[in-house]
Design goal:
This protein has helices at residues 19-35, 56-66, 81-93, 112-121, 139-154, 171-178, 187-194, 217-231, 234-262, 270-303; strands at residues 6-12, 44-49, 70-75, 98-101, 126-133, 163-170, 198-204, 310-313. The protein has 326 residues and is an alpha/beta fold. An eight-stranded mixed β-sheet has the order 7-5-6-4-1-2-3-8, with helices on both faces. The longest helix is centred in the last third of the chain and has 34 residues, at 270-303. The model has no long low-confidence stretch (mean pLDDT 85). Bound molecules: uridine-5'-diphosphate and magnesium ion. Uridine-5'-diphosphate binds at residues 11-13, 15, 50, 78, 80-81, 84, 103-105, 107, 213-215. Magnesium ion binds at residues 103, 105, 107, 208, 213.
Length: 326
Amino acid sequence: MSLPILYIVIPCYNEEEVLPLTSGMFLDKLLALKAAGRISDESRVLFVNDGSKDRTWEIIRQLSEKDSHYEGISLSRNRGHQNALLAGLMTAKDLADITISIDADGQDDINAMDEMITEYEAGCDVVYGVRSKRTTDTWFKRFTAESFYHLMNTLGAHVVFNHADYRLLSKRALEGLAEFREVNLFLRGLVPLVGFRSSSVYYERHERLAGESHYPLKKMIALAFDGITSLSVKPIRLITWLGFIISIISFIAIVVVLVQHILGMTVHGWSSTLVAIFFMGGVQLLCVGVIGEYVGKIYNETKRRPRFIVSERTFDEAENRETESD
Ligand code: UDP
Ligand code: MG
């Protein structure tokens, strides 16, 4: 069997501070794997510039001129981490036998790649990088992130606990992933749906080498919400149940009120009336909001806009945007 071609896919958004520090690490890893006779000479480090506003693309271009192992593509504008990653994976799909996706900031331990490839050699098409500890994250980040996984799983979006987007995918798995045409992307939830044999590799997560996280609490909540509503209709079912339970309670309340009326024990309290009105108002608004979220998703999906458009590449290729039109 010939050696597999590995593409390390790295989404980058405003990473001018961190790229000069981490790009060398990725290349060293690639060269070490090559020297160990585990991957082919055609393996590459593929950066995806996600519409950065700083010098990120310039740095990527310079790297690719300096060393032919570096390649880059640039998106026409900022599309967010998930879309940028998909753009990289879909580009690598036709060029590589395996891809490993990793963040640009050096937080994920690149040494876990060796073990990922071992798992691939053992017949796995998907290998998840799972954080064994989160000691370097703040208590708050750890708590919110862990609650995120629990909430996602309870609400029917099954994701691998403590796995972000550091993972190995084989060509077969990438081709499977390409079949999922959804615009609302949540790769962590999609990859398990692609199937194939999978396993996990554990590593310790470090601190960002430079620059700042692009995932503050607000974005994390948005991501959780997106993840849940793209993968599961459980929240809508919960709303139905809530409506059902409230209807039963209301029915009992009506009986109680009628009995009190008949017994002549009426009138005390507008407070209870008001509380009920406020409560119902709140519940209804919340439920309409959740349903609206799904309607919005349908709206976006029906338009079938491209998930990314590649504007530049450091290598030649005729195609210029996500094709595979039906
Ligand atoms: N990223 C991206 N587009 C965005 C935001 C982030 O491509 O709009 C990239 C970013 O450059 C990094 C990765 O996604 O390589 C993860 O982002 P970050 O490290 O900020 O998130 P955290 O690790 O704090 O969750
Ligand atoms: Mg990070």
